[in-house]
């Protein structure tokens, strides 16, 4: 039996294909971190740990005839999941009528899973010992002004780009910001005829990403090239069969993912 245990479900191959399509479509619409982080993988669900390097400090060290690698640690790839239930009577009704099965529960579970992934990317998990873009030590900081007034947002982000370039980070700059800040940028900047968000988008070559997972009043600018950071994927988001209980079917949406920050100064947090 495979890891996802689909053989145990009394589902047709066609129904699994419908579930997979619903999960993939929802994930693509919901995930934000993957829009700017390079994806490393999928490596397979059996890969449980990966090396996380401090790119500026990793080197081989010889001591007493033993060679080890400093600036490197091995970190477990956590599993993210969300469960949902398909009602047996609904499945039988769809089969008899020939209508498509209502998979809104699967879509909601995939959306919840995507939000958990983004929260891990941006915030990490203090209890589980994982860092996020806004919590990893060693990042650069820029004091955030009121982005609803004047050119504050533009000048703050320009200052962030300057901070990155002065540290030698070039290439792709990506901005993720909370939904409230994104809406504050939907205004015409006097004397330009342009929305503030459009000016900033041009500054970043279009790499601007509103993110629900950031909550309120938060923004982070990153040099998002693969040499600086990436997102490790073991098992990509998929549906697994859990059990039949009270005649209904329990299904789990799961994935294993880990953000890796190889050069901490490639991150600018606006505070």
Automatic annotation (TrEMBL):
<comment type="similarity">
    <text>Belongs to the encapsulin family. Family 1 subfamily.</text>
</comment>
<dbReference type="Pfam" id="PF04454">
    <property type="entry name" value="Linocin_M18"/>
</dbReference>
<keyword id="KW-1284">Encapsulin nanocompartment</keyword>
<dbReference type="InterPro" id="IPR007544">
    <property type="entry name" value="ENCAP"/>
</dbReference>
<dbReference type="GO" id="GO:0140737">
    <property type="term" value="C:encapsulin nanocompartment"/>
</dbReference>
<protein>
    <recommendedName>
        <fullName>Type 1 encapsulin shell protein</fullName>
    </recommendedName>
</protein>
<dbReference type="InterPro" id="IPR051429">
    <property type="entry name" value="Encapsulin_nc"/>
</dbReference>
């Amino acid at each position: 039996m495979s890891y996802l245990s689909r053989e145990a479900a009394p589902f047709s191959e066609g129904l699994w294909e419908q579930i997979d399509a619903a999960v993939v479509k929802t994930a693509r619409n919901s995930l934000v971190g993957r829009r700017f982080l390079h994806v490393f993988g999928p490596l397979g669900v059996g890969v449980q740990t990966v090396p996380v390097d401090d790119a500026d400090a990793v080197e081989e060290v010889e001591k007493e005839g033993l060679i080890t690698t400093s600036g490197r640690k091995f970190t477990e790839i956590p599993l993210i999941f969300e469960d949902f239930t398909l009602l047996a009577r609904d499945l039988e009704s769809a089969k008899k009528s020939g209508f498509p099965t209502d998979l809104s529960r699967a879509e909601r579970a995939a959306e919840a899973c995507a939000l958990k992934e983004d929260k891990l990317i941006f915030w990490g998990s203090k209890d589980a010992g994982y860092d996020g873009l806004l919590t990893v030590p060693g990042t650069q900081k820029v004091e955030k002004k009121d982005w609803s007034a004047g050119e504050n947002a533009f000048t703050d982000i320009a200052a962030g780009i300057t901070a990155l370039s002065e540290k030698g980070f070039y290439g792709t700059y990506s901005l993720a910001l909370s939904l409230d800040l994104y809406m504050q940028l939907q205004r015409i900047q006097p004397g330009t005829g342009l929305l503030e968000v459009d000016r900033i988008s041009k500054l970043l070559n279009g790499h601007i990403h509103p993110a629900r997972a950031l909550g309120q009043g938060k923004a982070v600018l990153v040099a998002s090239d693969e040499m600086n950071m990436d997102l490790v994927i073991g098992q990509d988001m998929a549906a697994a069969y859990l059990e039949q209980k009270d005649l209904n079917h329990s299904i789990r949406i799961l994935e294993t993912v880990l953000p890796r920050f190889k050069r901490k100064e490639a991150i600018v947090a606006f505070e």
